[in-house]
């Protein structure tokens, strides 16, 4: 079968790979679309904290496939058969049904990216109706979804922050009440606080580095900061007074830590919102044969969900 094959740690390439055969409690599914995510690049590079993939193997942790006559979202396919292939090997019990109104690309975007936004706001921050939220990295896929989820969950004010002007314009179209371009203001904490009308209860942070430090300085007393990525930097210099004096809660988030039933319920709610037209996202579909190009676009910080189609 055709697949994105990882022959050495780095970038997978389109090629032939043995077809999977189902064992007990497994199913071979026809893949309709596979997501391309930063975690895929980390895994393929051999830098994932969960261990290195075997070589050779098929890349990809999530996808949409047909199963028992319907469409399902799946993640964590059985290695060495990843999702970026014509067929994948999965546990059929660990799948989520997809409403007819949601197309394959959007269904993939609701997975790793959508769950990161939803779970960060619900499972971790426990966002409450009427609160003010700052979304860093709002031009990315997770940020765009987070802006919309904030509004769905009843946030009173949502501030989008990012470097891309076009991305910020998009975030405003999707419901952000204000936008701050990172790198523009001389006093970033003051600009963030002003955009949030002087109140920041929750920060969603996929960036870390200087943006996270500024957000922490701007956050209100008792705010919760959810850290879910380090796109800006692996390190951040944080003021002790900002954390201690305001009794801030800084918490990490990874989808891998959520129990399967929590993720399944979160995906169900995301899919229902998308089916009602309450969640929108840009999807770029690319043929599987262009997996190397998809990798380059991912590393260049694409502001849309990249999906490979076998």
Description:
It is a single chain. The chain has ten helices and 16 strands. It has 310 residues and is an alpha/beta fold. The strands form three sheets. Strands 3, 5, 6, 7, 8, 15 and 16 form a seven-stranded mixed sheet that branches. A six-stranded parallel sheet has the order 11-10-9-12-13-14, sandwiched between helices. A three-stranded antiparallel sheet has the order 2-1-4, with no helix packed on it. α3 packs across α4 and α3 packs across α9.
Class from helix and strand fractions: alpha/beta
Main sheet: strands, sense, barrel: 7 strands, mixed
The succession of helices and strands, N to C, reads EEEHEEEEEHHEHEHEHEHEHEHEHE
Helix content: 25-40%
Rg computed from alpha carbons, rounded to a whole number of angstroms: 19 Å
End-to-end distance = 10 Å
In DSSP terms (H or I, runs of 4 or more residues), the helix count works out at: 10
The proportion of strand residues reads: 15-25%
Low-confidence blocks of residues: none
Query: What is the number of strand segments?
Result: 16
Rough outline: globular
Average per-residue pLDDT, rounded, comes to 96
Give me the secondary-structure topology:
Elements: E1 2-6, E2 13-16, E3 27-36, H1 38-44, E4 57-58, E5 62-67, E6 70-75, E7 87-90, E8 95-97, H2 104-109, H3 112-124, E9 132-136, H4 141-152, E10 157-162, H5 165-173, E11 178-181, H6 188-195, E12 202-205, H7 209-218, E13 224-227, H8 240-245, E14 249-252, H9 260-275, E15 283-287, H10 291-299, E16 305-309
Parallel strand pairs: 9-10, 9-12, 10-11, 12-13, 13-14, 15-16
Antiparallel strand pairs: 1-2, 1-4, 3-5, 3-7, 3-16, 5-6, 6-8
Helix pairs in contact: 3-4, 3-9, 6-7
